[in-house]
Amino acid sequence: MKIAIVPGDGIGAEIIAEAIKVLNVLDLKFETEFALAGGVAYASHSHPLPEATLKLAREADAVLFGAVGDWRYDQLDRPLRPEQAILGLRKHLGLFANLRPAICYEQLVGASSLKPELVSGLDMLIIRDATGDVYFGQPRGRRTAVDGHFPGAQEGFDTMRYSRPEIERIAHVAFQAARERNRRLTSVDKANVLETSQFWRDIVTEVSKDYPDVEFDHMYIDNAAMQLVKAPRKFDVIVTGNMFGDILSDEAAMLTGSIGMLPSASLNASNQGLYEPSHGSAPDIAGKGIANPLATILSAAMMLRFSFNQADAANRIESAVKDVLASGLRTVDIYSEGTTKVGTCAMGDAVVASIRRKATAG
Ligand code: IPM
Ligand code: MG
């Protein structure tokens, strides 16, 4: 197993260090190599995704990624901004299937901005295409308008597009994931307005014929955004495009009250994967040793499950995380009265200790 470790910016290095600690206690054989991405890569290599990082990522079986983003580089030309590191990795490795679970941990129900009875037991999965749509569609840019409301004026434009194979493959991933869960899938689009979305809807409907055992429906993005805060537990799996998925996955993460807890996976057709926390680089708390490492630790668990077929080891990590929460330890982002506030490193240590304890007990 070869793992490319890419800590990135902000709290990236701190949270990745804890995930590595946890991986090291599992007695698995793997090789790791580190690489730079994001603002730190720009600072030393004048590019957010240096060639060496891309090469390492391509050659690895999996990439364990921290986070990128640094306000100091937000004024650079777009291709040089930190975010291009993650967009470039998705694109060059073909990581089209972005899996974003949103789970409300029982002990954290109170941390949600929604009433406990709405989110208690929430366990859903958003499957977002991550290599298509208006994110990557060409042409894009600025030009002088030849038509529209103000011909002759400067305008910015992007292109929303999806091809049949792109929609088919993400739909298959989603139906198969639904089969492994509660067999319900909602496809989200804006087919009442957009051609791309009507095409998406037609193709996903075609694919649904292969999965008669999965209860399937469509929902418009605006309604989905509303249903997510109204009755989130109605959802099992959502499949959607890049842009809508970006927005809905942040919304769903926040419902759980613990964006610091949520991992994600981005897979390509050969099950090579990139694993990263759903949260960002949090530059405001970088270096303070207070970031929540659990999303990254859980991302490492997803990596073991999806890229290395080590479901057993993944379960051990996940159950250790639950134990640590049950024991009352909390980083500041999920802290509430009556619990024990700990820093990044102590949280990682606690997960390691729990795994060790269970190994001796079992
Ligand atoms: C995400 C992020 C990225 C995205 C940014 C950093 C480019 O918001 O992973 O959701 O929009 O995909
Ligand atoms: Mg996002």
Automatic annotation (TrEMBL):
Site entry (Important for catalysis), positions: 135, 190
Tree of life domain: Bacteria
Pfam family, one: Iso_dh
EC numbers, comma separated: 1.1.1.85
One function term, GO molecular function aspect: 3-isopropylmalate dehydrogenase activity
Positions contributing to NAD(+) binding: 280-292
Cofactor(s) essential for the protein: Mg(2+); Mn(2+)
UniProt enzyme class: oxidoreductase
Binding site for Mg(2+): 222, 246, 250
Residue numbers binding substrate: 90, 100, 128, 222
Keyword Iron: no
Domain Isopropylmalate dehydrogenase-like: 2-351
Protein task: Catalyzes the oxidation of 3-carboxy-2-hydroxy-4-methylpentanoate (3-isopropylmalate) to 3-carboxy-4-methyl-2-oxopentanoate. The product decarboxylates to 4-methyl-2 oxopentanoate.
Full protein name: 3-isopropylmalate dehydrogenase
Biological classification of the source: Bacteria, Pseudomonadati, Pseudomonadota, Betaproteobacteria, Burkholderiales
